[in-house]
Specification:
384 residues, Maf protein, Rossmann fold, alpha/beta, elongated, eight-stranded mixed sheet
Length: 384
């Protein structure tokens, strides 16, 4: 190994971050460099090379439309990040880094020789691309260039003020794009925006598409009950259901931007998440008209309790009337109460004019006696 690369890797190993690195198509030289310098156990939680399409699909949790694209690299980085969060048993910050590439093989390729690299951290996603002119390099040279780009991307994620020189040619096309989750949460905290959504691939959208159904929660932590309820409600409705997390809550303190970043991190590479400052379902209905809200029995009781409406039945009725006028409604999943009694939608005290506003999710379709509060109280972790 060249001395400059060795010194570079030593600096990476000296940083506090711990990483999961996934490389498909190219980038194994970067893994070899990281492992070839003492101290790799301080940096690498795991290095994966999903070589077959079956391994690739299994890691990603889905079959991508195309294997070598910017979006696929972002999804891979998100999955690497959530895996790093799961594997990390210390307080060290973590990074997910991924590469998907198509470079020279024994068979001529019809498509471009290219690589897409992405790093995912709580506050940002950074993506890199390189398009190489065919015939300018042999396989070893293309592999080396892509691996050096991976190491440079990792150095940027670790805030190291150093870069390996890249043997770029005039015909090469390289780009870098950053998606700032931290900026978006700060803007919401300052009141500059009321809603943004983070797609499963990390794209941030302030002018979001309107979801047909939403499953809201504080997701502290995200757990299997949330995931199963999303799947069941989506199947019953026969269309996708999105997650939503609000920085404001009528019963709890506001969620800080830093904490919100942690909550968003749980969805990286897996599911889209809408982030709002809507503390009540009346406010949510104004942000998301014509939407079905998926809620548990305990939440439904709060939606129907006058204490959230200045202890006024008239204000409660007015709020429900507006929610209905916005084209919104509720699907209610049964939950155990504090006495461990299972309560379902049929047991709600719904004012007569609004009976059709609340529909039941049958217990035989969904029942998951798990809660975030129980997980926190017993020191258990949420979903992977």
């Amino acid at each position: 190994m060249e001395s400059n690369i060795k010194q570079f890797i030593q600096a990476i190993h000296g940083a506090p971050e711990r990483i999961v690195l996934v490389a498909a198509g190219a980038g194994t030289e970067a893994i070899s460099n990281l492992l070839g310098v003492a101290g790799a156990t301080r940096t690498l939680l795991e290095a994966l090379v999903p070589y077959s399409t079956a391994a690739f699909d299994e890691f990603l949790g889905q079959r991508p439309a195309k294997y070598v694209t910017e979006r696929t690299a972002r999804l891979m980085a998100g999955r690497a990040f959530t895996r790093a969060r799961w594997l990390n048993n210390a307080t060290n910050p973590v990074v997910g880094i991924a590469c998907t590439a198509s470079i020279i093989t024994e068979r001529p390729k019809r498509g471009e020789h290219r690589a897409y690299i992405a790093t995912w951290q709580p506050d940002r996603l950074v993506e890199y691309s390189i398009h190489l002119n065919k015939g300018d390099r042999n396989r070893a040279e293309e592999e080396s260039l892509v691996s050096h780009m991976i190491i440079n991307a990792l150095a940027n994620a670790l805030s190291l003020d150093m870069q390996l020189p890249l043997a770029l040619k005039k015909s090469d096309k390289a780009t870098m794009t950053t998606h700032h989750f931290g900026q978006a949460t700060q803007q919401m905290d300052a009141g500059a925006v009321h809603c943004f959504d983070v797609a499963s691939d990390g794209h941030i959208r302030h002018r979001h598409s309107k979801p047909k159904a939403i499953l809201s929660g504080s997701f502290n932590p995200l757990h299997d009950g949330h995931l199963e309820l999303l799947q069941v409600s989506s199947r019953l409705l026969q269309h996708p259901v999105a997650f939503e997390c609000s920085s404001q809550n009528a019963d709890k303190p506001a969620i800080s931007p830093e904490t919100m970043l942690h909550r968003i991190s749980q969805f990286a590479g897996r599911w889209p998440i809408y982030v709002t400052n809507a503390a009540t379902y009346l406010e949510k209905s104004r942000l998301f008209p014509n939407t079905i809200f998926i809620i548990g029995f305990d939440t439904a009781e709060r939606v129907l309790h006058p204490r959230y409406y200045q202890n006024s039945q008239a204000s409660l009725h007015a709020a429900l009337a507006e929610i209905k006028a916005q084209g919104c409604s509720f699907m209610v999943a049964g939950r155990k109460d504090k006495a461990a009694v299972f309560r379902s939608c049929e047991q709600l005290s719904v004012p007569e004019p609004f009976n059709n506003l609340f529909k039941s999710i049958p217990a035989n379709a969904f029942r998951k006696d798990i809660s975030s509060a129980e997980l926190r109280a017993t020191g258990q972790r949420g979903s992977r």
